[in-house]
Amino acid sequence: MPGEYSAQIYRAYQDEIGGEAFFLAMSDLLKDPDHSYKMCVLAQLELETGQLLKSILAEPIGDLTDDIREREMGRLEASHCSNASWHELMILLRDDLPEYISRYKELEKAGRVEDLACLWQLTKHEEALFSFCEQEIIGQSGQSLEPVIHLLGKIPDRTR
Ligand SMILES: [Fe+2]
């Protein structure tokens, strides 16, 4: 496996680790149970996407300290967003996504045949997040999670 390709997959994996920590921390911070649950579902999407990426990494590149650092950064980012309204948060999240979507579409083009299903899923998960944010922004909050749930292996229970 070429080094650069491997490194990109590892980077994407690390982003999922940070994303999961971010969404879990947001879930804790948000008062509205519906918003909190939605963050929990997004965290699950990040977790499952990260696991997929890990499964196609040919050999370990980094170590656990990378994961710990990413998690800390995810939590820190969440604390920076703690004063944002839900609407503002959705806009912030959405505006981050097009860059990832185009980056991962490029990665799909460079992907090994055996990795393509996984890389497709990587792009799809960003598109599902984008769709989620867009639906929330226009007030269609009842259906917003559908594309996300469609990709999930396990749907989190509502705890509150
Ligand atoms: Fe992600």
Descriptive account of the structure:
- By secondary structure, this protein is an all-alpha fold.
- The protein has helices at 3-29, 33-56, 64-80, 86-110, 116-137, 146-151.
- The longest helix is centred in the N-terminal third of the chain and has 27 residues, at 3-29.
- The structure holds fe (ii) ion (FE2).
- Fe (ii) ion binds next to helix 1 and helix 2.
Shape: globular
Number of helices: 6
CATH architecture: Up-down Bundle
Radius of gyration of CA atoms, rounded to a whole number: 15 Å
- Ranges where pLDDT stays below 50 over 5 or more residues in a row are none
Q: Which oligomeric form is depicted?
A: single chain
Q: Which compounds are bound in this model?
A: fe (ii) ion
The counted number of beta strands is 0
Largest sheet: none
Number of domains: 1
CATH class: Mainly Alpha
> In terms of structural class, how would the helical and strand content be classed?
mainly alpha
Provide the residue-averaged pLDDT: 94
Helix-strand string: HHHHHH
Looking at this protein, list some descriptive labels:
160 residues; Ferritin; binds fe (ii) ion
How is the topology of this model organized?
Blueprint (H helix, E strand, L loop, with lengths): L2 H27 L3 H24 L7 H17 L5 H25 L5 H22 L8 H6 L9
Helix pairs in contact: 1-2, 1-3, 2-5, 4-5
Bound molecules: fe (ii) ion.
